[in-house]
Write a structure and sequence with these properties.
Order of helices and strands: HEEEEHHHEEEEEEHEEHEEEHEHHH
Structural class: alpha+beta
Helix content: 40-55%
Radius of gyration: 38 Å
Strand order of the largest sheet: 5-6-7-8
């Protein structure tokens, strides 16, 4: 039969279980504002029954706190991290597309339109007074102003590309740091749980790091049960293992060599990424996502093509009559992104200036100066020590800038100074459909349209995924979050259980006092 004092043991177990539940509730309440904290619950079970060898059989021996568990749903974790990946991508794109838009907005309002109209306004003035050197000088200066403006645009686009490139390196460093921290936490979790404990707070820390990692790059996670309370927690990026419970890998950045330059207008030193094992990390993978994906698209995106030097049938560079070569879009081998990033807009500006400058130069080279002494020469040239014509290095001919009288105005030597048929021919370029079948204004407006569409898309998708982030996080918190009212009700319940167990011990104390001190004496 059971011991006479067995009831005291049962009451004491209830007292301990209630105390443990109160402590867990206090821990929950103290972390109610802790980001990433998961609600904990003291799981209780009836203690093993004892055989009493009495007619009533076995007798319960009280209650045990079996374990302290977390209330978490991995389904919502996966939904949250998938959304974080899209959120990170469009946050990066929105940031940089807004920067690009700030330059091209000025392009529309008082940039390109003003420069373009000023140029042809001065062209029209020269047609009225072709022998006037001051009018010719105004035309040359407006051409220089236009060239300087395109230099400015190109320079700012290169600055944005360089910023995105630096952020690529920062993103890789963050991935490596998070991978190392997650590995260390996984190792600690296994050390604790191998001894049949629950490393709940360490799991919270690891989950918070995984959430951050999912915003930088798309990941897949898996936790495999190895037995003996050990698990192998694995994180993969695009099918390659970043970290598991046995170690972690790092990503390594290296600057592209000259022969690896992808687009002709790219800044030098753009980073390639590899695994520390030497295996290629495909930055153009269709399944890549997160902030890293957004940065790569901005930095390298050329609408699925590359900007390459124009070549002849033999593959040799095609030089113009002015001694420089030009660039144009070229199909690539598929290892590229279809997004319209910095290289795309650089190439479009280059294309515009190449077509425009060549058309202007061709007109001028057909004529002679007003006095008939100087053959026509190119107005637009490239800066010293440059070989490729682009919006970043276009300028005006120094010889014309120093002596405007050398500007060609007429097509025949033996005509008078008032003849301005060359300038009249130049004036027609304003409405000539030489830019992919459209005028210069139409060509530039199409660039603005592309930029506006992509900026609005990035902005709208960022808003959508921000709203989804809030919605999914609220769903997660409905399961894993700490609720003041719920914890308060639990606290009252556990206090009552504690009071009742205490009351039971008090009653048993009176019984034992009666039995021991007041019976049979």
């Amino acid at each position: 039969m059971a011991s006479t004092f067995f009831g005291l043991t049962i009451a004491y177990s209830g007292l301990q279980a209630a105390q443990a539940s109160i402590n867990v509730t206090a821990h929950n309440l103290s972390n109610v504002r802790t980001e990433g904290y998961t609600k904990e619950t003291a799981q209780k079970m009836a203690a093993d029954s004892l055989r009493t060898y009495a007619p009533y059989g076995t007798l319960g021996s009280g209650v045990l706190v079996d374990e302290i568990t977390q209330t978490r749903d991995t389904y919502y974790d996966e939904k949250y991290r998938n959304n974080q990946t899209y959120y990170g991508e469009y946050e990066a794109k929105n940031n940089y597309m807004n920067q690009i838009e700030s330059f091209f907005n000025e392009f529309i309002l008082n940039g390109y339109t003003e420069e373009y109209n000023n140029f042809f306004k001065n062209v029209n003035q020269v047609t009225l007074t072709p022998e006037d050197n001051s009018a010719k000088n105004s035309l040359i200066q407006s051409a220089l102003s236009m060239a300087d403006y395109f230099n400015y645009l190109s320079s700012n686009l290169k600055d944005i590309q360089e910023d995105a490139n630096n952020e690529v390196k920062d993103a890789v460093e963050q991935i490596n740091s998070l991978a190392q921290s997650i590995y260390q936490l996984s190792k600690q979790i296994n050390q604790i749980e191998a001894c049949y404990g629950n490393a709940n707070d360490l799991r919270d820390s690891r989950n918070a790091l995984v959430d951050r990692l999912a915003q930088i790059v798309n990941i897949t996670t898996n936790e495999e049960d190895l037995g003996n309370n050990l698990t192998n927690f694995t994180i993969n990026i695009d099918g390659n293992t970043l970290t598991n419970s046995y170690g972690y890998h790092e990503l390594v950045v290296s600057s592209r060599k000259d022969e690896e330059v992808r687009n002709n207008s790219d800044v030098s030193g753009l980073y390639n990424i590899k695994w520390d094992t030497g295996q290629e990390f495909n930055i153009y993978s269709a399944s890549l996502g997160g902030q890293l994906k957004g940065l790569i698209d901005i930095r390298d995106g050329c609408n699925g093509q590359i900007e390459a030097v124009v070549t002849d049938d033999n593959g040799d560079y095609k030089y113009t009559e002015d001694g420089f070569f030009t660039t144009d879009f070229k199909d690539y081998d598929g290892k590229n992104t279809s997004f319209k990033g910095i290289p795309y807009y650089q190439a479009q500006l280059n294309k515009f200036m190449t077509i425009f400058a060549q058309a202007v130069n061709d007109v001028f080279k057909q004529g002679f100066s007003s006095d008939g002494e100087t053959p026509g020469m190119s107005l637009f040239v490239i800066k010293d020590k440059q070989v490729a014509f682009s919006s970043s290095n276009v300028t005006v001919n120094k010889e014309l800038a120093l002596d405007p009288s050398k500007l060609a105005t007429k097509s025949r030597i033996n005509t008078g100074a008032a003849n301005a048929d060359i300038i009249e021919k130049l004036s027609k370029l304003q409405t000539a459909q030489i830019f992919n079948g459209g005028t210069g204004v139409y060509f530039l407006e199409s660039i603005i349209a592309d930029e506006s569409i992509d900026t609005n898309k990035a902005n709208n998708f960022l808003k959508n995924h921000t709203n989804l982030k809030t919605t999914i996080q609220n769903q997660r918190l409905s399961v894993m979050g700490v609720d003041f009212d719920e914890e308060t009700m639990d606290l009252v319940t556990f206090k009552q259980a504690y009071d009742l167990s205490s009351k039971m011990m008090s009653v048993l104390n009176q019984i034992y006092d009666k039995l021991i001190n007041q019976t049979g004496v």
